[in-house]
Amino acid sequence: MFAIIEESGSQMQVSEGDLLQIDFRADAEAGQEVVFDKVLIANGGGASVIGRPVIDAATVTGTVVNPLAKGPKLYIQKFRRRKTFRKRTGHRQKYTMVKITGIKVPGLEIVQKQDQPAAAE
Asked: Which of 64, 62, 1 is CA-nearest to residue 29?
């Protein structure tokens, strides 16, 4: 089962148990529950449910694992030739890490795939 959600202007495909990196939330604390209500598409193994633009009453829930995760350090350099002008600045993006705990979509048929025996050679 998976769902495609929209968070902070970007779309992400999530399944239960996935670790998701979202934009930094200053009010987030470790263990806090986060609810994503903009669910665009959901699939339970059978037919998909497609929202126009979002699925009504569908939610994806998650738990904050790390409220402040940092991305790699990026350096920006400006340079003008023959003018002795050099400027160097840096940036490090902040993120919040969320673990997906549940996907609830009304009217979604969930199909469990059963283990099939290996074919004999």
From this structure: 64
Please, how many CA atoms are within 13 Å of residue 70, restricted to the half-sphere of its CB?
5
Q: What is the pLDDT of residue 115?
A: 62
98 is written with which tokens?
Answer: 């969320």
Helix (H) or strand (E) holding 49: strand 48-50
- Report the DSSP beta bridge partners of residue 102: 61
Please give the Cα distance from 20 to 51 (Å, whole number): 22
pTM: 0.80
Give ∠ CA 118-17-19 in degrees, rounded to 5: 125
Q: H/E element holding 15?
A: strand 10-15
In whole angstroms, what is the distance from residue 98 CA to residue 102 CA? 12
- Tokens 């059978």, located at residue: 46
CA angle in degrees (0–180, nearest 5) for 50-2-119: 115
Express the helix, strand and coil content of the chain in percent, nearest 5 each.
Answer: 0, 60, 40
pLDDT in tens, 57-72: 999 999 999 999 999 9
